[in-house]
Design brief:
The protein is mainly alpha-helical and 77 residues long. It has four helices and no strands.
């Protein structure tokens, strides 16, 4: 859905991006996502969207890491 025309609507794009980041472990294994990576020319704006997804996933991982470190320090203290 995100890689078709929905990226034109910021509200819808944001909802989908949040879902993709939250479910990244599942999304990245789907046939559709793999197809998008294999045939980006078939999906408008795919390069930019994949880059944005990767950045958001990285930021989410960093937040989780910091949260775990903070929790670990709090429990240890």
């Amino acid at each position: 859905m995100l890689f078709n025309t929905e990226w034109f609507w910021p509200d819808l794009k944001e909802m989908i991006m949040k879902y993709v980041v939250k479910k990244w472990e599942i999304v990245r294994e789907t046939d559709k996502y793999k197809e998008i990576l294999e045939k980006p020319q078939d999906y408008p704006n795919s390069k930019e969207l994949v880059e944005e997804i990767m950045e958001r996933v990285r930021e989410d991982d960093e937040r989780k890491k910091i949260s775990q470190e903070t929790t670990s320090v709090s429990v240890s203290a």
